[in-house]
Design goal:
The protein has 15 helices and 20 strands. The protein is of the alpha+beta class. A hairpin with a 2-residue loop joins β11 and β12.
Length: 445
């Protein structure tokens, strides 16, 4: 009998399993899909043979739990750290500029970087001063263990930015691409409290917290394979093709059923997405009805990624922002990955409109936008293109969504993990890892 059963081998499930296995627990991880990784995985492109992520993921220096997870599975050397925050943007007119934060105390390093940014007019740059006060207050709240986004609750990101005097072009060039990347939802829908919480963590007194940390290999090699190896090396097991259903006896979880096999365990961690929770129950206990119903009612926000193979390099740097467009960021995997990749990945976050397009139109939009931003792309020959839709990529952060549940449930022996539970973070890899570590801590009590 394992000490703990974990349902789901995505980021949350594997981080919980690694933490438990490292503490000496016997762990069994069950994954319904053919491969581990969940929504942050990879696949092999049949035409090129390259391993392609099912969506581009970027970490930040403030992802302390994620970085600790990577260190524990001996994968910390599989990411590339940027020194501080420096982001190259190409506006809709094709003008390229770079935002670089100087080595000043927070939040003045952000203010100083924007004031010196030649991609904006003087008045647009000076409007950044309106953010300094709210950001400093959010950082103090975070240091006290309080909600850093409390003062921005109930309003959208755009309304909050306008309230604090942010110029429209500054919103287009900086705040909107950053908010879309962090929240995966348009700034006219996402609640600002979540965004302010991200800013408080990102622009902390520690300059490295704002650094971009980019995977130097596909996601399966970054964390999936090392985490599975770690669990197995500690005597645990990770099974795929193993759809699990909870077994509840006299109000308590006693294990799971995988097809006709009953697996007993005193503790089960359900590390599935919000849309998969209902499927774990044959019959939902009355004590879980509110949580399961809330998960079922929670809306989703999609991400669309287009991968393009050109016959020659078209980018000077590894990452470029494309503000004001359908696709907000482009990554040159030949420069990002250690070796073997030759494609560009263009990412559209909060992509409800893009996800509704045909594949041909999605690809045509991406090619037109990359061509408008990068002259070298207009001269290159496109060899291959693919579009990847993740319609259920993240949960909605709009006001009025059901409350996010805690780790511990009303059913004894049942714990929850996943980026969607209450972590104080939006739907990020860091939120998933935080939830996994919390579930492991509860299981060990």
């Amino acid at each position: 009998m394992p000490d703990v059963l974990v349902i789901g081998a995505g980021v949350a499930g594997l981080s919980a399993a690694v933490r438990l296995a490292g503490a000496g627990a016997r762990v069994l991880v069950l994954e319904a899909r053919p491969t581990s990784g969940g929504r942050a995985g990879a696949y092999r492109d049949p035409a090129t043979g390259e391993v392609v992520d099912n969506g581009q993921h970027v970490l930040l220096g403030c992802y302390h739990e994620t970085l600790a997870f990577l260190r524990q599975i001996d994968a910390a050397n599989r990411v590339r750290w940027q020194a501080g925050l420096a982001v190259t943007m190409i506006d809709r007119g094709g003008r390229q500029s770079t935002l670089a934060c100087p080595p000043l105390p927070s939040p003045w390093h952000l203010v100083g970087g924007v004031v010196a940014w030649d991609g904006l007019g003087l008045g647009e740059r000076l409007s950044i001063a309106g953010i300094a006060g709210p950001l400093a207050r959010a950082q103090r709240a975070l240091a006290r263990g309080e909600d850093p986004g409390a003062e921005a609750r109930g309003v959208t990101v755009r309304a909050w930015l306008e309230r604090h005097g942010q110029a429209p072009r500054l919103c287009e060039m900086l705040w909107e691409p950053l908010a879309l990347a962090a929240l995966n939802q348009p700034i006219d829908l996402a609640e600002a409290s979540h965004f302010l919480g991200v800013l408080a963590r990102m622009f902390s007194p520690e300059p490295s917290d704002a650094a971009l940390v980019v995977p130097a290999c596909p996601l399966d090699a970054l964390y999936v394979e090392p985490a599975v190896r770690f669990v197995r090396a500690q005597g645990g097991e990770v099974r795929t093709h193993a759809p699990a259903r909870l077994v509840i006896d006299k109000g308590r979880v006693t294990g799971v059923r995988v097809r006709d096999e009953h697996l007993a365990a005193p503790i089960v961690i359900a590390a599935v997405p919000w849309f998969g929770l209902r499927g774990l129950f044959d019959e939902v206990p009355a004590s879980m009805a509110a949580i399961v119903d809330g998960a079922a009612r929670r809306a989703a926000s999609p991400i669309v990624t287009v991968n393009l193979w050109f016959d020659r390099p078209v980018m000077e740097g590894p990452i470029v922002g494309l503000p004001g467009r359908a696709f907000q960021w482009v990554f040159d995997k030949a420069q990002v990955f250690a070796d073997g990749a030759r494609h560009l990945s263009l990412v559209s976050s909060g992509a409800a409109e893009v996800a509704a397009m045909t594949n041909a139109r999605i690809i045509a939009t991406a090619v037109a936008e990359i061509g408008g931003a990068l002259p070298a792309a207009r001269r290159a020959t496109l060899r291959r293109a693919t579009a990847v839709r993740e319609r259920l990529a993240t949960f909605s952060l709009a006001a009025g969504e059901p409350p996010r549940p805690p780790t511990r449930t009303p059913v004894p022996g049942l714990l929850l993990a996943g980026d969607w539970i209450e972590t104080g973070l939006p739907a990020t890899i860091e939120s998933a890892v935080v939830s996994g570590h919390r579930a492991a801590a509860e299981a060990g009590r």
